[in-house]
Amino acid sequence: MIKIIKYKTYIFFFTISLISFFYSVYQSLYNYDGFHSGLVLFSADGLNKNLIPYKEVFIHYGFLTTYVNSLILKLFDNNLVYIFSATSLSYSASLFILGILMKKFSSQNFSIIGLSIIFFLHPFTIYPWHSYYTFLLFNIFLILRVSDKLYFQRISYLFLSSTILFNESFKYASFLILLFDFIIQILKEKKINFDFFKNLLAKLFLYLIPIIIFFSYIFTNELFEYWKVYSQMPKVFLELNNVEFYEILVHFFVTLKNNITSNLFQEPHWLIYIFLIIFNILYLFYFFFSKFIKKSLLSDNNLALISFSSLVLLFQAAHSVTIFKMSCGLVVGFIVLFNFINSIKDKENKIIFFSYYFPSRIIVF
Q1: Please, are residues 137 and 162 in contact by the beta-carbon 8 Å criterion?
Q2: What is the pLDDT of residues 6-43, one digit of tens each?
Q3: DSSP for 31-63, written as a single string
């Protein structure tokens, strides 16, 4: 009994994850999306028929997404439900990791509240989509990256780059996150020496390993030219829609505004997403203000990395502003938000802030 009480927070995290997983699988039995499910099945089945990826099989997002799905089909008699189960397991595992991260950076109570909010925003998977694989790998990267052990920190970069192989459009986000991470590590060091650069090079080398393996496979099988055609898909998308990239970004924020002004009562959850975006932007401004103006040594690099990442991961929803894409990236910003609430020293101010924030989120649900 004492042990149950001791681990009650983790039991809660696990329970939320289980509910998400089983309900995701249950609803998948009665919900079929011809486009998403059909595309997943077509690509995975192509690999199982020994068709050549990129040359004879359409790899829509990432090679490893298609490869993992093909293995699942082969193991479970071509049953789509098991692919849905794999993506559902990925999302539920992500919820569990997010709970651990919020507990690490805030408190037991705030982690329970924070995970509950994330769960109610997007309780279960709706497609057998690569976004859930990507989200899991990114959360694994985060929990290893913020570890106190250097070994885990280094290993984390393997997961950051492996994510690209599940979603090739993630390469831009991955590079920006890596660059930001290295910059804040350099800023943190009072004295930059050989050991520091050796550590950075070790991290960079581990980051490059999955990419090197992938391109070795591509060149060995003479698939580079075919892969290069696929890599032009974002450019083709812009040309087909006759838009520039900046217009996509403008459209993203206009859509968010419209969702709030026109659908506030039907879809009030967009308020949470807007709040998270604004909060994390302000947090990053404060972080750099503390670094360069106040010369503070107390600013947390890990939280800055999480905050920056939550904003960068908005790229997934740039062309299609949907809940599941917002909840497979931006929500990591809750870690920073609840750390901020927990850090308020004046108990009365903390109560005032939280008494405003939490009831407003309940109303949104």
Answers
A1: yes
A2: 588 999 999 999 999 999 999 888 877 777 788 888 89
A3: ---HHHHHHHHHHHHHHHTTPPBTTTB--SS-H
